[in-house]
């Protein structure tokens, strides 16, 4: 009796339209971003979370052994802006990298109608970007640098430093005593 009731409830869940809508959303997300990711250049042994969001994947390059965490976004530009990530870089969840800005000063109306300004982003080898770091167009982060959680990187960072804050500022060299 209990078993039959359970099976019936399970069957009802499967045929419910909301279940199918949910699966359609998941399939759409995975299909779109999966296709973009397949266009990217990915080095040997790199691990990329299936929930990563990629735009213009042919202008995205992820180095060997790098790890890109859950819900990170790698949004390269529509025409030129590339995102280049070095070997063994580690991205915590929710890191957002973009190689493109709207030139919102160029038009008075909707920002979406504005042209885009694109600039390459380079993130060095052996870097660690903490959770929710944002990296803006044109920025270069040197090899081995660490960016603290929640920072917004608006300008270049040299190699081998810890940087934090909004905007991100160098706090100290990596390996130095605190
Ligand atoms: C950067 C981090 C590793 C701390 O490094 P640390 O050397 O121990 O740094 P400290 O805690 O000694 O802090 C040094 C200074 O930076 C500041 N700071 C540290 N993290 C910061 C952050 N996320 N944003 C702003 N300032 C920060 C501290 O307040 C401190 O400032 P003070 O000298 O004025 O007091 C840590 O703060 C961090 O962001 N970790 C990322 C965690 C994460 O995303 N994990 C996901 C796993 S992949």
UniProtKB/TrEMBL annotation:
Keywords from the named record: Repeat, Transferase
Top-level taxon in the UniProt lineage: Bacteria
Gene Ontology CC annotations of this record: cytosol
A Pfam family annotated for this UniProt entry: Hexapep
GO terms for MF: O-acyltransferase activity
Similarity comment: family membership: Belongs to the transferase hexapeptide repeat family.
PANTHER family attached to this UniProt entry: ACETYLTRANSFERASE C18B11.09C-RELATED, SIALIC ACID SYNTHASE-RELATED
Protein name (record): Acetyltransferase-like isoleucine patch superfamily enzyme
Organism: Xylanimonas ulmi
Lineage: Bacteria, Bacillati, Actinomycetota, Actinomycetes, Micrococcales
């Amino acid at each position: 009796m209990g078993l039959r009731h359970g099976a019936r409830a399970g069957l009802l869940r499967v045929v419910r339209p909301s279940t199918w809508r949910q699966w359609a959303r998941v399939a759409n997300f995975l299909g779109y971003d999966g296709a973009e990711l397949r266009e990217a250049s990915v080095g040997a042994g790199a691990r990329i979370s299936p929930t990563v969001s990629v735009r213009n994947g042919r202008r995205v390059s992820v180095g060997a052994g790098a790890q890109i965490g859950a819900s990170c976004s790698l949004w390269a530009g529509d025409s030129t802006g590339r995102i280049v990530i070095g070997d063994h870089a580690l991205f915590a969840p929710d890191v957002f990298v973009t190689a493109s800005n709207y030139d919102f000063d160029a038009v008075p109306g909707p920002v979406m109608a504005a042209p885009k300004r694109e600039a390459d982003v380079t993130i060095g080898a052996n870097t660690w970007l903490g959770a929710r770091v944002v990296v803006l167009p044109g920025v270069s982060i040197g090899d081995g640098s660490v960016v603290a959680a929640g920072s917004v990187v608006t300008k270049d960072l040299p190699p081998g430093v810890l940087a934090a804050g909004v905007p991100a500022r160098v706090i100290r060299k990596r390996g130095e005593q605190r």
